[in-house]
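quick one, two chains, predict together pls
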Amino acid sequence: MDKCRKNIVVLEPSKIVYEGLFASISQTESEYAFFHIHALSELKELTYIKDVSVVLINPVLVQNKESEFIRIKKQYDYIHWVGIIYCFFDHATLKLFDATFQITDDTTVIIRKINKICNNKSLESLHDERLSKRETVVLKWLSKGLSNKEIADKLNISIYTINTHRRNIMEKTGIRSMAGLTVYAVSKGIISLD
Amino acid sequence: MYKTQKSYINRDKKMIDLINENYSLLLCLQHFHIDFSVGNMTVKQMCEDYHMNLNVFIVIANLYNGFFPSSHDIDQIDDIHSIISYLKSNHSFFLDDKYPELKYYLEKIKKNQNNKDFFLIEQFFYDYYEEVLEHFQYEDDIAFPYFCSLLDDQPSSQQNVFSAREYQNHHTDIETKLTDLKNLLLKHIRIESDLNTKRKFLNTLFGLEFDLKIHSVIEEKILVPLIEKIEQQKNG
């Protein structure tokens, strides 16, 4: 699927509001693909086929369902949640979102907020792309076929830390299979084939 | 302004407009053995012409346009055989079309190649192919016959062997490795060859990734739940 574009999900019952957001943002920004859903439960189905970056959400949909919303936020911790505000909401509700905008805001203000949220994440990953010394060592042993437990014993650290290193290695390289990581390790000279 | 989202397919849409909007639907038609010369037919008329189950077509074609079926859409499906037939056609697409294509480009890149990293990629690709082959074999020999025996209400010797979890693990591995292959080439390893051949190789990988993704969604989110429902009904 299209990895360069960010997918924005609009969770908003009003079709007019959705169409308005879609039209005004698409006019100036080409980096986003839009999806319209009507309930939180539809998000799960969408994430099977799309990587969702941002959800623009009408706060009415989470009112009185705060605990369910918090659970969903935890489940999709990579998603940014932005509240679409067109009436008064109490502070506690607004605090649930990573950002908010007023429906009366100028389009450029709304776009700037969304861009800021999306770029923040990509800048972070750009800075972090090189493997740290420790991660390189963990990758070396993983490529040689050692289990998490064996590596933890060898380096005298917990399995939990090994798992974190492992996750970081996958995030940074974009490679998730062991076979793929081995190819990466050989090509970067971390291990040799001999 | 331009449109960033594809249309939701329904029975009254004209097939020609849908193809013009998203030509990946040609592949969907091919998997259903429907000819591309669709004239002025609506989705409904085309399905009638080809004795194709309308609900199944709409649900699967919408996946090509990026729409996931609701549980109501899935419940409406009353023809599991045509889903299995679609998936079988998907297998031959990979084995007879995509695999030879990828192999051809790899062989072309291999000529005059002395970069050791290329051979790592080549090995990775062939190992990957073996894995896909094994999965397809599992489907052809175990999963599909089991589904068919359930649908036709006939006893099957495979009943205890099929496992939905194993099925899902296969898919995850296959998709992960394909993405890894793409990322190795795009992010980490530079192979010396002409851009044209490399682009064609990558293009084919992207196309295959798209098709395999739809393949897994159909199996895991549509077919397996439908089969499980039948199993539950049978077991009372």
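Chain B has nine helices and no strands.
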